[in-house]
Write a structure and sequence with these properties.
The strands form four sheets. A nine-stranded mixed beta sheet has the order 7-6-8-9-16-15-14-11-12, with helices on both faces. Strands 4-3-5 form a three-stranded antiparallel beta sheet, with no helix packed on it. Helix 6 runs antiparallel to helix 8. By secondary structure, the protein is of the alpha/beta class. It has three domains: 61 residues, no CATH class; 208 residues, Class I glutamine amidotransferase (GATase) domain (Rossmann fold), CATH 3.40.50.880; 57 residues, no CATH class. It is globular, with a radius of gyration of 22 Å. The chain starts with 14 loop residues before the first strand and ends in a 6-residue tail after the last helix. GO terms for molecular function: transferase activity. Keywords: Glutamine amidotransferase, Transferase. Pfam families: GATase.
Length: 361
Amino acid sequence: MGGLPWVSSPCPDAKSGPGRTRCHARQDAPADITTICTSGPRIIRHGPAPNTDPAWPIAAPANAMPSATLCRDVPVKKGPPLSPIILVVSSETPAQQNERRSYAGQASHESYAAALRRLRPGIELDTVSCFEAGTLSDLARHDGIVFAGSPIQMHEDSAEARAAARFMAQVFEAGVPAFGSCAGLQIAAVAAGGATGPRHPGAEVAFARDITRTEAGTRHPMLDGRPATWTAPAMHSSVVTRLPAGASSLAANPDTPIEAAEIRHGRGTFWGVQYHPELSLAEIAASTVHQADDVIDQGLARDRRDVEAMAARLRDLDAAPTRVDIAWQLGLNAEIALFERRMREIANFLNAVQAGTLRPL
């Protein structure tokens, strides 16, 4: 390994979590150098493995103390970085989690985690409820934070809404980049000083159609790869009615004034969408059936049989996403039928997290 010395000092910019220590290469290190760290006899790397050495992973030096953190710089070839550590946040109460499991198979944060693992196999995930007390150090050990959707109504003065806003305020203070779908966007807006309210004429069910970029959205990296107008999974009865200072609206449709936004507040940067890139078409089918009464009340279906028929076509398209005949019948296209294209905003967020472009200066 070139005989470079071990240094008996803390790893630079160390990130610690349950059972792991992660280190980042020093900013002043040469491009072909990475930092190798060990806690006692276990070596953990950040950055590409030193594939010039067939003996990787190497052993810690014999004199390493069990509680010591030792580092040395090792020449490496260019390679892929480690996956980021992401915290998935639930804003559903235990009762709401169980209700969603009963009709969709998973609570919202569980569904989100499954989508992230499918998008980035090997990604490291932790989960937490925003109703639990946390600390800045708990948040700061993560590379990014993702807020799942929920039925929470941030315009109501409830204990849950207040707790969710407090949790998000901590995220902004910690300076960890964050992303949120649906309720996640509303929580961030309220925590930063914005407002939410009921959506008129009613809930946006199954899909948000005709989403169009604003001028700011045309050059925003969260929407990289999206066409000028698109359709996305959606299921919400409230919207952001006023963005806080330091925020930009990135997309809208005729009935939802803010479909996507960036919020900069305190030390943090938040990217959010009012829709659900993470939801499969099968989950949208289950949620639509679950809200059949609302669908019928809005005149979107004549009766429950209409809702069930639409849900059946959605399940068929979920199982065979290249079936253009089903997509045509539903007024959809590959932008929503194909998983990688449906998850575009989340993939762009993970790319930005990994590149370090969303961290405070």
